[in-house]
Amino acid sequence: MESGKQLSGTLAVSVFTAVLGSLQYGYSLGVINAPQKVIEKNYGLSLGVWSERAAVLSENSTEEEEFSDAGKHPTVIMYWSLSVAIFSIGGMLSSFLVGFIGDLKGRVKGMLMVNVLAIAAGLLMGFCRMWKPHFMVIAGRAVMGFYCGLTSGLVPMYIGEIAPKAYRGALGTIHQLAIVVGILISQVIGLDFVLGNDDMWPLLLGLSGAPAVLQSLLLPLCPESPRYLYILLGQEQEARRSLHRLKGAYDPSADLEEMRKEKEEADREARVSILSLICSSVYRQQLIVALMMHLSQQLSGINAIFYYSTNIFANAGVAQPVYATIGVGVINTVFTLVSVALVDRAGRRTLTLVGLGGMCCCAVAMTVGLNFKSDYAWMSYVCVAAIFLFVSFFEIGPGPIPWFIVAELFSQGPRPAAIALAGCCNWTSNFIIGMTFPYIQVFLGVYVFVLFAVLLLCFTVFIYLRVPETKGKTFKEIAAVFQKGHKKSPKDATELQQLKTSTDA
């Protein structure tokens, strides 16, 4: 059997186990939206700024002092905003630790260690009624964000290192598939007649930690990354055993030879710290590409679409906009599956270009639809179609590919630092969009998607000009593409030597 073409049961179990962390990340992203009104009401009751009796009285009288809707009280708004935003802050902080945790005990034990955070976060939110719900939920969301920042780096790193070359793209895309499935599950069980109600909402939030329990039981069955064992620890026999477990009965000589060469390269270049990577001119091209790929994902306007969708569906005359939003979640999932099927055939670069270009056209269509919606009734349907197509194009390329392409662009030495930087860039831009979008929307009105269309066009041009195809290439071949455009100078040799001797890794 040809090396790199095998898909074994152990490999399937390992990938499934790893992406339970991604499922948890997606669930945590989506879970807070559906029960917003219910949580605000409970915050208001707990803070003593709102009561159901007062709300009824104020609705029946002309007095303005009382807030009939708990969500309109400034204190409740502050705590609610913090509950949402603290998740991104936790992710921003922990994304820097991905490389450290991944190298400390290995990829598998690293994922096992951080599950303590997810379970603790789930318990904090699940039992939030035992003390002050607003403090308990905010603490739980902060810890969960910290966990998700780590898992959004560790999962693609592990999958990228255990996947056979021929399936690296498809298996890497499963990280994003698990995220969108997590979002969809949270939308469905967040409906008011399931768990998104007064009685059950703490359980809804607490379930964020459930996948970590299952993952903790399964991780001991997963082999450690052969690349980590050979290249970082120098354990050739352990790496050979791990390869046999992942790929079944085959001759691992070619894989071990590739790792041996990469180890020699890694021994020459040493572990590269985050600061060294930022300052290094040797890796600058790869780093710019990695960061731009993550920026294109977050600044594409995808979060704005989710923010806007319920409102647009309502205007289009959809009786239950919440179900249409779940429909967006279903499309999210279906087109991520399409990406899994296509990514190793069509290639990363092609799918990203098609995705960003398609999203740019949809953003223009959205702007036209929003502008003429009041003049022509059918323009509402143009908006709805644009939303569905926008999400489809996002999941074909710009959604899943940035997560795993960073692991492909860098060799073993700078890889953990690069994944940490790219993750931090992703979380920071996510946070910035989340905080500024309501203000941008007020300022630009119906032209808000013109801004995203311009950004998408810029990203499309950049990727066309600067991003190489990584499909089917070894890590060394990918690095060589960048070295071709970067002539090695005596200064680079000195810089690599400095990176080798520096101890700040």
From TrEMBL:
Bilayer topology reads: Multi-pass membrane protein
Pfam short name (any one): Sugar_tr
The record's section on SUPFAM superfamilies has: MFS general substrate transporter
* Name assigned to this protein: Solute carrier family 2 member 2
State if Cytoplasm is listed as a keyword. no
Q: Which family does it belong to?
A: Belongs to the major facilitator superfamily. Sugar transporter (TC 2.A.1.1) family.
Region annotated Disordered, chain positions: 485-505
Location of this chain's protein in the cell: Membrane
| Entry's Gene Ontology cellular component terms | brush border; plasma membrane
Q: Which domain of life is it from?
A: Eukaryota
Transmembrane ranges? 7-27, 77-100, 112-132, 138-159, 171-195, 287-310, 322-343, 350-370, 376-396, 417-440, 446-467
The chain positions of domain Major facilitator superfamily (MFS) profile read 14-471
Q: Name one GO biological process term.
A: dehydroascorbic acid transport
Q: Which GO terms describe its molecular function?
A: D-glucose transmembrane transporter activity
List the PROSITE patterns hit by this protein, alphabetically. MFS, SUGAR_TRANSPORT_1, SUGAR_TRANSPORT_2
Query: Organism source for this protein?
Result: Labrus bergylta
Give start-end positions of Polar residues composition bias.
495-505
